[in-house]
């Protein structure tokens, strides 16, 4: 019999004394982990073992473990916040669990029952709630991960796996200066039939060399193109605000979910809020393909108002410039972003910090 993952069996062992963290303004993204981790082991014959929250520690693994050779690894990124009312909240954890399962399923790793996954996440956040840094922009970054750890050099269906969650207190992500993007067409992040719509570890390592190349040329990030169409920016979804000079209407747009892009929880939330809150007599909200040529041509007609990247880490990152070979699209926005970029950031942050009490942010108590 293969055992289900059972949250009622959760075993908790806490550390005696807590580590101390640097002040908020010195927290760099993902460098320091909290004192605990949640771990559950899985075996294809016996199923899930007892989930445990225990002191953060190294894993001991066979060097032949699948994860080290064949990239059986996927992850999630989400956050817990201390609100202005001192309540702890997590943002749409069910969406992250659903996506984790989309990723595990793609590489034959076990799925985590979404309700159980969220329950375990909540228990873990409760244990760490006192180390969530406070203030707007501050949060506890949570990293649910699944890896295969059976040892064999023959690649096949994993027979052993670990589901674990670790956490890192993080500050508000601020780019050091204007975000200039290199529209990259000599490497692709994803392709039809590929895995770009899942958060597999294997998707990320190959993006580092093109990013290094872009950095050498003075760019912050790659704007990933596929056949000339804009897909994502770095590890963020990409949004544009166009002005249609003929109709006078503004268009708020992002790439469609065609398998090439990651379905960001931030993207999904922004679109849902925009459809609810932007005046339809002034706005058109679309998910469509935008070609780099359209961006360049419309920028020449002053029809490109704003551009930003969207994701859990930074919520929105305003883009100042996109360069494609010798062409440059300069966006007429301040360092903080244009009007719409700022509005979207406020919507999301107000929800995260309990200023706007909204079902997207679930209280943990
Ligand atoms: C994680 C990720 C995003 C953002 O997703 P969120 O759920 O909004 O954090 C976007 N693009 C890629 C490639 C990602 O890995």
From TrEMBL:
<keyword id="KW-0100">Branched-chain amino acid biosynthesis</keyword>
<dbReference type="GO" id="GO:0009098">
    <property type="term" value="P:L-leucine biosynthetic process"/>
</dbReference>
<keyword id="KW-0032">Aminotransferase</keyword>
<dbReference type="GO" id="GO:0005739">
    <property type="term" value="C:mitochondrion"/>
</dbReference>
<dbReference type="InterPro" id="IPR018300">
    <property type="entry name" value="Aminotrans_IV_CS"/>
</dbReference>
<dbReference type="InterPro" id="IPR005786">
    <property type="entry name" value="B_amino_transII"/>
</dbReference>
<dbReference type="InterPro" id="IPR043132">
    <property type="entry name" value="BCAT-like_C"/>
</dbReference>
<protein>
    <recommendedName>
        <fullName>Branched-chain-amino-acid aminotransferase</fullName>
        <ecNumber>2.6.1.42</ecNumber>
    </recommendedName>
</protein>
<keyword id="KW-0028">Amino-acid biosynthesis</keyword>
<dbReference type="InterPro" id="IPR043131">
    <property type="entry name" value="BCAT-like_N"/>
</dbReference>
<feature type="modified residue" description="N6-(pyridoxal phosphate)lysine">
    <location>
        <position position="199"/>
    </location>
</feature>
<dbReference type="InterPro" id="IPR033939">
    <property type="entry name" value="BCAT_family"/>
</dbReference>
<dbReference type="GO" id="GO:0009099">
    <property type="term" value="P:L-valine biosynthetic process"/>
</dbReference>
<dbReference type="Pfam" id="PF01063">
    <property type="entry name" value="Aminotran_4"/>
</dbReference>
<keyword id="KW-0663">Pyridoxal phosphate</keyword>
<dbReference type="InterPro" id="IPR001544">
    <property type="entry name" value="Aminotrans_IV"/>
</dbReference>
<keyword id="KW-0808">Transferase</keyword>
<dbReference type="GO" id="GO:0004084">
    <property type="term" value="F:branched-chain-amino-acid transaminase activity"/>
</dbReference>
<dbReference type="InterPro" id="IPR036038">
    <property type="entry name" value="Aminotransferase-like"/>
</dbReference>
<comment type="similarity">
    <text>Belongs to the class-IV pyridoxal-phosphate-dependent aminotransferase family.</text>
</comment>
């Amino acid at each position: 019999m293969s055992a289900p993952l059972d949250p009622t069996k959760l075993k908790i062992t806490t550390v005696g004394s807590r580590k101390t963290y640097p002040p908020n303004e010195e927290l760099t993204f993902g460098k320091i982990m909290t004192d605990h981790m949640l771990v559950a082991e899985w075996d294809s014959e016996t199923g899930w073992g007892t989930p445990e929250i225990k002191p953060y520690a190294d894993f001991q693994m066979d060097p032949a473990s699948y994860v080290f050779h064949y990239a059986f690894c996927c992850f999630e990124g989400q956050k817990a916040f201390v609100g202005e009312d001192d309540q702890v909240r997590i943002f749409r954890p069910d969406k992250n669990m659903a996506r984790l399962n989309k990723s595990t399923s793609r590489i034959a790793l076990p799925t985590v029952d979404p309700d159980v996954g969220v329950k375990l996440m909540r228990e873990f956040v409760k244990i760490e709630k006192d180390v969530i840094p406070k203030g707007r922009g501050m949060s506890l970054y949570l990293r649910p991960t699944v890896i295969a750890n059976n040892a064999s050099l023959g690649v096949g269906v994993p027979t052993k796996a670990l589901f674990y969650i670790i956490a890192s207190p993080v500050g508000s992500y601020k780019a050091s200066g204007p975000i200039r993007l290199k529209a990259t067409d000599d490497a692709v992040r994803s392709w039809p039939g590929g895995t770009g719509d899942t958060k597999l570890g294997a998707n990320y390592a190959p993006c580092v060399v093109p990013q290094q190349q872009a950095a050498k040329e003075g760019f912050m990030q790659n704007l990933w193109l596929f056949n000339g169409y804009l897909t994502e920016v770095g590890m963020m979804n990409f949004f544009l605000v166009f002005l249609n000079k003929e109709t006078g209407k503004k268009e708020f747009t992002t790439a469609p979910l065609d398998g090439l892009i990651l379905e960001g929880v931030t993207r999904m939330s922004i679109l849902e809020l925009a459809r609810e809150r932007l005046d339809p007599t002034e706005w058109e909200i679309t998910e469509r393909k935008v070609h780099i040529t359209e961006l360049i041509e419309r920028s020449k007609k002053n029809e490109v108002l704003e551009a930003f990247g969207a994701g859990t880490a930074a919520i929105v990152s305003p883009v100042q410039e996109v360069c494609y070979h010798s062409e440059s699209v300069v966006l007429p926005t301040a360092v903080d972003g244009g009007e719409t970029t700022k509005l979207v950031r406020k919507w999301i942050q107000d929800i995260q910090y309990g200023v706007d009490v909204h079902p997207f942010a679930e209280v943990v108590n």
